Amino acid sequence: MKPAVIFRPDRKQEVVLVHFELSRTLTPEDLAGLAPPDLVQLGCAHLGVILSGRGPIWLYGFLIHYYHPCSYVAIYDPRLQGGIVVASHKPGCEPGDLIPYQTVNSQ
Amino acid sequence: MKPAVIFRPDRKQEVVLVHFELSRTLTPEDLAGLAPPDLVQLGCAHLGVILSGRGPIWLYGFLIHYYHPCSYVAIYDPRLQGGIVVASHKPGCEPGDLIPYQTVNSQ
Prior knowledge:
The structure is a homodimer of 107-residue chains. Chain A is mainly beta. Chain A has one helix and six strands, in the order E-E-E-H-E-E-E.
């Protein structure tokens, strides 16, 4: 069965853009079965994460918490062509900072 | 000056609904100046939090991280009349669980 959420990670230097697409309408019960790229297991928790995709706020909420061990978590804003930091352990990287990231679509 | 985001916390038993309203269009720089109700300082980190309001995903992201020390964090869904848990330290309370919460508007 096709997963409810398909994740497409794309790394550039010290940041991973985690883009997601929904294969159907999500229900809250789907959160228990998600399998986002596990950066901790991959030894990549020192990287920053930018989340990108169309989905409910609670999906974003789940992913923000999931990537909490990473250097920082940002939300992609296509208008600003980058991620807006919402949480950070990285010195000098604060909520509200913009992490520039050019996606394939914006090139 | 009026704050960019006005928070209206509402407690019922062991959960606080943190509703917010924007007084103007937010920019990422606004995140640095936000003053959400500080449940840790109030000795209320043992409570759960339900976030509610219309705003950008990165505002939600900031608030989810901000309330990370609390028992759990959920996102209000008016259709389901409750909060959908996205992060939890509480045994038996998992992402995807619905925390029923009747707001004034839905009564």
